[in-house]
Each structure stands twice: as structure tokens, then as C-alpha cells.
Amino acid sequence: MLAAALLLLLTPMVSADAAGQGAPTDSTIDPGQSACSGSASSSNDAYSVGKHVAGVFITLAVSATGILTTIVISTNASLKSRRGVITALHLTKFFGIGVIAATAWIHLLPDAFANFTNPCLEGYWNVYGGGNYVGLFGLVAGFLVQGIEMFLVKHHHDVEPAKIHEEHKLPMSTSDTDVSIRSVQRPTTASDEPTAAPPPSMAANDDTALTLTAITGHGHSHHHGGNSLSPNSHPNSHPISTILLEAGIIFHSLIIGVTLGTTADDGFTSLLIAIGFHQFAEGAALGVLLSSLSRKTFALPKLYAAGLLYPLTTPIGIALGIALRDTYNANSQTAILVQGILDSLSAGILIYNAYCELISKEINQSGQFRGLSRGTKVASMLFLYAGAGVMAVIGLWA
């Protein structure tokens, strides 16, 4: 749907470019105008195809290492049961939240503003105020994520009401069940009638809901106490927000791949190193978030398919950049709009997910987080800021 909307937006721009090329030109050529119509790089710039091809495999290896390492560790029963590994995954998740938020604010939004305020952008795109389009497309992306998630989650609950009621009708006759129910200080008549499953945000804060889930033995989340750090102790049953988060990251990864593929040798090495660190950190963060999804709705084949999609995107972008290096013009109307719109959409998706899905649910609404020790909470917040800080430093080059 986003691709179709983008195509509709770019069609008149491509036509306008074609019309402009056929129009008569003045004998006096504006230097700025010639820069907009020229090629992306000077023919005198050194460009090593071999070095750029090597960059394809380097970014593939680095990106795959980042995301697949955390996925393998998070899904390995013998590894994820170790206290040290659990703590490392927990802190990696918070580091990743900082990475995602900083990617939106430091890497995507400035690039989007630079594109929409580019003097080479002409026509009615300047009427609205140039940079205002960044807010417009980012706002639309955030609303789309919320709307899609709300629709799909509602549909999921509507198609399985009978199953949910049956789980709460199961007999609870063991002595352990009686003890657990007596420990919940509510009228006993309330437990005799079937009730709908609480939403995830309520379940995280409601000790009664957690107790009933644990004693029936049919939930995927088991309450092991307030100090549980396991990233899978309360898995997200609705992966759509995480999938859309990956989509936003993929948009950005494709753009930086094309940029790297068209960069001349003098700036290629430093940009490759910066993008390598960027891809590794972002991949590790995304791997932990994907692994925290419920295996019921996001089985291992889907998990690894999503994990392999991310490391392939930037190398594909680099390959496209290599193929188009002689004809690609970063200052053309079409290139500016494609990069500006995709950066704006990606920023909106990442900002929504960072604050509404991750920080809100992992910290503000999480009974698990509130039950952690003060030291663990401080460490979690330090890793959150560390992730943002690392991406801020990388932003100096990429």
C-alpha cells in the first residue's frame, strides 16, 4: 500500500522532469540548476568497483551477525536459561530501544528535512513549506501503524472468542489452584463466570490476571516473580507492530545502501565503517525484539525469515548503487522525493514504535520492569542512553 501511494506521488514528478528536459533552455545556465541536472558524481572521481562489491559482502556479514546472533541466543533453550545470558538480552533490548529512537531522530529526520528543503526540489512541493512534508508523512506513517495494529489485533480477538472462554472454564480443582485463588483478594463469585482475556497492557499490571494465567497453565507467559529478566517471559502475541518496525528499518537500510553504492572511493571507506556499526547495532536490537514475539503467532520459520530479510536489504541497495552509479543523480527531483518520503515514513514508524510500543510497554506499563532491583533499572536506562549515544556518534559519518 505504501509502495503504491509512493508510486502515485512520484508519477507526476517523473512526467515533470521529462517535460523539463524537452523544454527550451536559456543561454545563461544557472550554476545551481546545472548542479541539479548533472550526474551524482564527477567523472574524475575515483571509483573502484571491486571495493564496492566487497562492501556488499561486508555489510551482509555484519548485518547478519548482529541480528542472527541475538535470535539464536534468544531461541536456544540451554543458553537463554542462564542468568548471565538473560541479563545480557535484557540490556541489549534496552540498548536497542535507544538505537531505534536515535535512528529516527538523528539519521532519518535530518536527511528527510535536507531532501524536502533541497533547492533542486521544484514545483508545488515548495508551496507547503518544504520541510513540512516530513511531519506530514511521518504523522501518516504513525497513524497507519496504529490503525493497522488495532485492526489486526481486534480481528485476532474476534475470531477466537470461544477458545478464550474455554481456557477460563477449565476446572481448577487442585490444591495449588485453590491456594493461588485464595491469595487473590477478590470475591469468589467473580471467578465462577468466564471473562474475556485482558489486554496485554492490563495483564502486565494486574497481579490477578498473571496469577490466573499461571495456574491454568495455558498462557505463554509465566509469572516468575518481580525480578524476572527473561525477554520471553511476557511475549507479545501480536507481532504486527514489530513487523512494521522492521519495514521502517528496511526502508532506511535500502536508502543508505544506494548511497554507499554511489559514493566515490575518497569517502567510501569511512562511510562503510560507520554503516557497518550502524547495521550491527540495529540488527542486534531488532533480533531481540523479534525473538520476544510469541512462538504461537510467530513460529521459528517466520522468525528466521524476518531475521534474514534485514541483512539482505543494505547489500541490495549497494548493488543497485553500483549498477546505477553512472546514471544516478542524487539531486534529481525523483531521487530527492523518493529519499525524502521514505525517510519521513521510516522516521514516523520508528518514533511511534520507540515511544508507544517499546518505551511505554517495556517501562511505563510493565509490572515486570517495576519489580526489578534499583540497580537493574539504572543499568537498563544507562543502556537505553548508550544505544542512543552510539547512534549519535555514528551520525557524524552516516
TrEMBL record:
Organism the protein comes from: Geranomyces variabilis
Primary location recorded for the protein, binned into one broad class: membrane
Signal peptide: 1-16
Biased composition (Polar residues): 172-192
Parts of the chain that traverse the membrane: 53-73, 85-108, 133-153, 243-262, 268-291, 303-324, 336-355, 376-397
Example of a GO cellular component annotation carried by this entry: plasma membrane
Entry protein name: Uncharacterized protein
Keywords: Membrane, Signal, Transmembrane, Transmembrane helix
